[in-house]
Amino acid sequence: MTTAAASLSEDVDILLVDDIPDNLRVLSTILEGRGYRCRKAISGAMALQAVAASPPDLVLLDITMPAMDGFEVCEHLKDDPTTQAIPVIFLTARDAEAEKERAFNLGAADYIVKPFKAYEVLLRVQHQIDLRRQQQQLEAQNRQLQQEIQVRQRVELELREQRQRSEELLVNVLPFQIAQRLKEHQRAIADHFDEVTILFADIVGFSQVSAQMTPCDLVRQLNRIFSRFDELAAGHGLEKIKTIGDAYMVAAGVPASRADHAHAIAQMALDMQATIGDFRRPDGQPFQLRIGINSGSLVAGVIGIRKFIYDLWGDTVNIASFMESSGEAGRIQISDRSYHYLKQDFICEARGNITLKSGDPIPTYWLVSRPGLTLNPDQAVEFCMPT
Q1: Which of 79, 148, 165, 336 is the most buried (most CB within 10 A)?
Q2: Active-site option among 203, 241, 276, 319
Q3: Residue ranges, CATH 3.40.50.2300, the chain
Q4: What is the pLDDT of residues 59-93, one digit of tens each?
Q5: Catalytic residue (one of 202, 225, 291, 293)
Q6: By CB neighbour count within 10 A (0-12 exposed, 13-18 middle, 19+ buried), where does 172 fall?
Q7: Distance CA 208, CA 287 (A)
Q8: Quick check: pTM over 0.85?
Q9: Considering 246, 271, 319, 347, which one is annotated as catalytic?
Q10: CATH entry, 3-140, from 3.90.850.10, 3.40.50.1220, 3.40.50.2300, 3.30.565.10
Q11: Residue 202 catalytic?
């Protein structure tokens, strides 16, 4: 026997079970001569105790024993999940076919009849040990594969969660449709829209008020106000474009066209004016908004390669901004273009012409109320109703 084979045999632990000590002595001499380590048990109970203390690689088991025969021992081993994989070879003088059948039905790996040849025992033992080693290798490979699968599943889950967080962040800073197009690797996103309504709102006197507030209080107050505006925008199905300082910009008709773009923005403006009164300056007075609205065509798209934003360009945007900056505290100034969409359903007051930065005069109006408002007949306001 080679050194490698001897070393392999020395790693094998075999339990010999027989109630006749001479039989155990003969078997152990044969097996130990091949380099196997042997333990001995002279009863079924002792065999089960030995297995429980240290499971062997193989059990050589006699059938005829007092108190507990070999069949019972084998049945105990095969019923226990921790020992059922241990191969059992019956080594007995009983040669009846019925007993062989019973042994194999109980889960025996082999059946050797006494008297036996030493080489036969060694070959059959080695065969079962080889099978056992292959089984153990497969089990180890299966465990490793299961671990690799679990690791891969964890990695995939983490990647999905990261991708979901990235997508949620993308949708949080960009319109959903635009985020989807970016995910599809559209690098240049620029769209023309014929009918869009833009709203700019500015918190009147906030710059002066901010000097009376701590940085934390300032940011907290702005966050509360703009979060309320965000809720209103979502409720009206509008697209918040951005905030700049204490200014808020929102649009209807982008990135998806809608026929009621002007009406949706008008409702938003009135709701914003109603909402701003819930927020107080440090002196206890309510904040006021100056709001400007304009309608028309524009270009919308994504700019930048880092911290990119969805933005709008065109005269429509510039005039909407001018409607806000040239307006009055607590009021909503709309251009004649927006008035054209709203005059049938909203109450508006003619303000008169104002001159744009380009030098061109345009008629403007104050958006006063939403439909259904009952007016005080003594109210000294001249309303411009449709003709």
Answers
A1: 336
A2: 203
A3: 3-140
A4: 999 999 999 999 999 999 999 999 999 999 999 99
A5: 202
A6: exposed
A7: 12
A8: no
A9: 246
A10: 3.40.50.2300
A11: yes
